[in-house]
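Got a spare moment? Tell me how you read both lines of this record:
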Amino acid sequence: MDVFSNDKAPTRADDEHEARIEDFTRCCLCGTELAFQHEVDYSRLSVREDAHCPSCRIRLRARDHALH
């Protein structure tokens, strides 16, 4: 038995999961894979995440994440 084979048919949840990943990693305008940049602020214990499209040259997302 091959432990890496996946013989089950994709479910609706699988399709929704894949769609969410596409929304997060691809440009909503042109579909190009986004470029992410991360900057750590050690004094505030946070990470600044910026995402932009290298094709459209627009900034699509900027988020701060707390480090714990």
Observations:
- The helical segments are 12-25.
